[in-house]
Design a protein that fits this description.
The complex is a heterodimer of chains A (108) and B (221). Chain A is α+β, with helices and mostly antiparallel strands and 108 residues long. Chain A has helices spanning 2-7, 9-25, 31-38, 47-59, 83-105; strands spanning 29-30, 63-70, 73-81. In chain A, strands 1-3-2 form a three-stranded antiparallel β-sheet. Chain B has 221 residues and is mostly helical. Chain B has two domains: 4-80, no CATH class; 105-182, no CATH class. Helices cover 62% and strands 6% of the residues of chain B. Chain B has helices at 18-34, 41-59, 69-79, 87-92, 101-104, 124-132, 136-149, 153-164, 171-178, 184-199, 201-220, and strands spanning 4-9, 12-17, 66-67. A three-stranded mixed β-sheet of chain B has the order 1-2-3. In chain B, strand 1 and strand 2 form a beta hairpin. The chains are: A alpha+beta (108), B mainly alpha (221).
């Protein structure tokens, strides 16, 4: 089982970006909340992975953030999807559906 | 009793127990090395510092002002190894484990030095012992016996070595004398140097020529 999970690691890694776009498509999200959301799923990850990924997505103008005051310390970055990110997300959604259909067509 | 180190993470001060500070310091240095080629380096480093700061605050309270080493370890565990998100940046950092960059590096080159710490006289035997990795006493015995058997001629060799072999003055020299890094900081600075020297190996060659030149210079005096 562990071996299978290891084999699938690159797939999960590749999909993480897609999952992040899906998460920030809703309300503005703070990184700690993203990690909490991802924690119980197959996409459980850590700050060490997430921050570099978010910075890359921001550089590609797919996500953006705004500073929000917090009562427990300095202001926090809340991430949200940009219009460009929304387009990319719907492309990815379509592609994912196509992939699923292709996989289903092959049968088992 | 524990020594405490004051640090600032993204502009806010924290107090860490010293071993914890060392661990966090090397975690951040490792992260920075990983992100060396990323255009987002500064931003990600600030994000990481803020996240670490937040985790530190979570364990502090009105009657607890110092983050313990165990807590720092847990925080580093939670943060996880820093991975560059860009494929081209990820390519330059070969090791995916994150926990032990030392394993991926070639062992440091050993160099012969005179080691004055714990030396009988000039530290030549000490340096040789470190170089060939045997107890210094055996080297000394060998030198004394060889001096006796060669009716003093071997002693001249000691004098020659004394002038020719450089003295280990810096911590880096001493690490090179033993062929090992002895701190994480030194380890990281060595990793950086390995990167730099592979980029400009000709500069290293010129450096080596210069040091052997100074060696013969002092021999003449």
């Amino acid at each position: 089982m562990e071996n299978i999970s290891e084999k699938l690691a690159p797939i999960r890694k590749g999909l993480l970006e897609f999952v992040i776009l899906k998460i920030v498509a809703g309300d503005k999200v703070y990184v700690a909340d993203m990690l909490k959301l991802l924690g119980p799923t197959e996409f459980a990850t850590q700050e060490g992975t997430l921050y570099p990924l978010l910075s890359k997505l921001r550089r590609e103008e797919l996500v953006d953030y705004e500073w929000q005051e917090s009562d427990a310390g300095p202001p926090r970055k809340y991430y949200k999807l940009t219009p460009k990110g929304r387009t990319q997300l719907s492309t990815l959604n379509d592609y994912w559906k196509d992939l699923n259909r292709t996989l289903a067509d092959f049968g088992n | 009793m524990q020594k405490v180190v004051n640090i600032s993470l993204n502009g806010i001060a924290y107090q860490l127990e010293e071993p914890g500070y060392n661990q966090l310091h090397s975690y951040l240095e490792r992260a920075e090395a990983r992100l060396k080629d990323s255009p987002d380096r500064a931003e990600v480093m600030a994000d990481l510092e803020q996240a670490i700061g937040e985790k530190c605050r979570a364990v502090l309270g009105p009657h607890k002002t110092v983050v313990s080493t165990g807590e720092v370890e847990r925080i580093i565990q939670e943060m996880g190894p820093v991975e560059a998100a860009d494929p081209q940046a990820a390519n330059t950092t070969a090791d995916p484990g994150g926990a032990a960059p030392a394993a991926a590096l070639p062992p440091p080159r050993k160099r012969l030095f005179q080691i004055r710490e714990g030396a009988m006289w000039m530290g030549v035997c000490n340096g040789i012992a470190a170089y060939i990795n045997v107890d210094v006493t055996w080297v000394r015995i060998a030198f004394i016996l060889l001096t006796i058997f060669s009716s003093g001629l071997w002693f001249v060799l000691y004098l020659v070595l004394m002038f020719v072999v450089p003295v280990a003055t810096t911590p880096e020299d001493r690490a090179a004398a033993f062929g090992m890094p002895f701190s994480t900081e030194e380890l990281i600075s060595r990793a950086k140097k390995t990167l730099n020297s592979s980029a400009s190996s000709t500069a290293g060659g010129a450096n080596g020529a210069a040091s052997s030149g100074s060696g013969t210079g002092s021999f003449a005096t």
